[in-house]
Structures are given as C-alpha cells and as structure tokens.
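It is worth pausing here to work through a concrete case rather than discussing structure prediction in the abstract. The textbook approach is simple: state the sequence, then state the predicted structure, then interpret. We follow exactly that order.
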Amino acid sequence: MRLAIYVSFRLLAAAMLGAVAMLGASALSSPASASDLAPPPKVSSPRLYVFDCGTLVYNKPEDYNLKRDEVKDSNMGVTCYLVVHPRGMLMYDTGLNDRLVGRPLYEHVLEGYAQIKFNTLSGQLADIGVTPSNIDYLVLSHYHWDHIGNADDFAGSTWLVYKGDRDQMFSAVARAYPWFSQYSTLENSKTVLLSGDHDVFGDGTVVVLATPGHTEGHCSLLVRLKNTGPVVLSGDLYHYAEERDLKRMPDEEKTTGTVESRRKVEDLLQRTGAQLWIGHSMEFFRTVRKSPSWYD
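Step two, the predicted structure:
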C-alpha cells in the first residue's frame, strides 16, 4: 500500500510539473528581469494579441434583459488586448487580478459573479517578450473591477482616459472599494484626458472610440489590421452577442448613452466592414486566437 501511494504521488508530481512546463511563464510570476525575456515583438504594421484574463461564472442574464433560454452561455470571458504598433504598444483592459490564479472561485464572488483565473497577465506578456515597462499607452474600457485588475502594473504608461471615468475612479466612494488598490497608482500616472474619439498614433490604425453609457467614460477601441481588417474591441458596450441580436440592454443604460453609442459603433461597422469583438461573449472567448498567437 505504501509503495502504491509513493508511486502515485511521484506520478502526480511529475504530471503537475509537466502541466506547468506546458503552460509556460503565463502560469507563473513574471521573470525578475526583462533581460530574461526574448526581445519584444517588432512590427511594420499593427499587430493585436488577445489574452485570457479570467472567467466570470454567472447565471443571471436577466440583468441584461435576457432570459436564460435566450443565451447560449450565461458565463462571461474576460479578455485583455495588446496592440503592437510600429510607434509603440498599447494595453486595452487588464482583466481580473493576477492574485486570483489558483484560488477556488467561491473565494471571490462579487455582485453574483464568481471569478476564476488560470494564468497571469504578466506571465502571458512575458511569453511574448513584453514587460509592463514596454507598454507606452494604457486604455481601460471603463473602471469596473473585472477590467482594472492589474492596472497598477502599467502606472508607468501614459494613461488615456475620459474625465468622467477618472473622476469616478478616485472619488471618495471608490477609494473605499477593496479593489481600489489594484489601480490606485494610476492617480499619479502621466494622464491624457480625452474628449471624443482619439487617434493614438496619428495614422488612423488605432483609435479610442468614445462610447459612453455603461459608464460615463466608457470607450471602445478600433484597430485597423493589414490582413485581418478593422476590428472593434467593444468593452462592455455589449456583454452577450444576444444583446445585439435581440436589441436588448440593461434598463439603467437606456438613458445613459448606450443607445447612442451602439448606434455609433453599428454605423462604423457598416461603413468599414469591421468585425465586432464582444470580449465577455463565451463563444468569442472560446474561439478567438489567444497569445502567443496574434492577429495582424
């Protein structure tokens, strides 16, 4: 019996080591020094990476004016994106906090959403030779906790943000939130307050789109890719594809600007032929190519 237990333990340990090796740096903390990494990617035209930044286990689509049998999957993916441009790098959203990796989902339930995470954002960046210090610009679609989990890591970047969201993030109420510490150092970051749409690199390939409604300063991101074509990263303009198909939205957003912002983006999609990427959609989350693969 003891021999069998010993052999089983050895096999389990070997399997765990193999799993870690297969996952790579994304399952571990980032290297101590940037010199440990391969050189960051260099490009002649924009490149877009998609990162797995967690999953929200949720079963109440009624909050989005959808019935349970109207959605294929009520859970939500959490995505983060890196745009590599010849003139710099931009991070769009930072997902669930890396400290959740390896923790059971019942430990972290907020507003009915159970959070689970299998790999770190810092590790996924390291897998492609990137550290937070390489990131020139940070854009958060908005300030909700599932989008700002690792924002402090990018406090050395130039933060592009709308005043309405920044004011909310550093209000007296927000400072009491348990997740405030995950983005608090942005208060002293180099900051550009945006008004309207913003062409980040001045060539029309990466444009921050003002899409208020979900929050006052909510924004989406248009990325024009040479081979893939234009893509709109929609933030929380939509959560489920069925919201778009059935023309539904939370009641509280019907008068805050979401109607107008959706119309703006739909017009843009029609004019340009752009794809709409709904980051929380589990169908999208399952099928999108994730880093270290990319879109260009």
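Step three, interpretation. The longest strand covers residues 47-57. The two ends are 56 Å apart (CA to CA).
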